[in-house]
Amino acid sequence: MKLINLINRFRAEEDGAVTVDWVVLTAAIVGLGIAVLTTVGGATDDYGQTIGSHLSSQGIKTTY
Predict the structure, then answer these.
(1) pTM of the entire structure?
(2) Please, what is the average pLDDT of the chain?
């Protein structure tokens, strides 16, 4: 009788299903973030190097 009650209570609880939903949603968000970083990462690096070279070519005026 105890085993049947344990099985029925386990089946009725929804905490595990909610946890699985959150894990799946979190994995999807992380996967989407990695895909965006992979797609945009190369162009961002090139653009950053262009800005860096432009800024390093600029002089700083120390006297007025």
Answers:
(1) 0.52
(2) 86
